[in-house]
C-alpha cells in the first residue's frame, strides 16, 4: 500500500487504528531523514505533502508517542527529530512502545 493511501486511512480512522497507521507512516518518513532536500524527496518519492507529514508527526506528539525537538525560539524541528529517531532506534522503539 502506498504512503498516500496510508495517509488517507490515517485521516479517516480514529483511536488505536489511527495511531498504528501514524506509526507506519513515521517509519517510512524516517527512512528519508538523511536525504537533502528532505521535503522535496518525501513529496517526490513517497507522494505525501510536507504539511501532511507534519500533521502525522503532530498527532503522534499529541498522543505522547514522540517528542518533536524545538529550537531556542520555539520552532519545531521536524527533520532533526526524524534524524535523531533514525540514529537511535532503541529510543524509537521506546517512544512508539514497540516490544
UniProtKB/TrEMBL annotation:
Protein's name according to its UniProt entry: Uncharacterized protein
Amino acid at each position: 500500500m502506498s504512503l498516500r493511501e496510508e495517509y488517507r486511512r490515517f485521516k479517516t480512522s480514529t483511536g488505536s487504528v489511527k495511531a498504528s497507521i501514524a506509526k507506519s507512516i513515521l517509519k517510512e518518513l524516517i527512512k528519508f531523514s538523511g536525504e537533502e532536500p528532505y521535503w522535496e524527496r518525501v513529496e517526490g518519492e513517497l507522494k505525501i505533502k510536507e504539511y501532511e507529514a507534519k500533521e502525522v508527526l503532530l498527532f503522534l506528539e499529541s498522543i505522547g508517542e514522540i517528542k518533536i525537538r524545538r529550537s531556542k525560539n520555539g520552532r519545531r524541528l521536524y527533520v532533526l527529530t526524524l534524524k535523531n529517531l533514525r540514529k537511535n532506534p532503541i529510543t524509537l522503539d521506546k517512544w512508539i512502545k514497540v516490544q
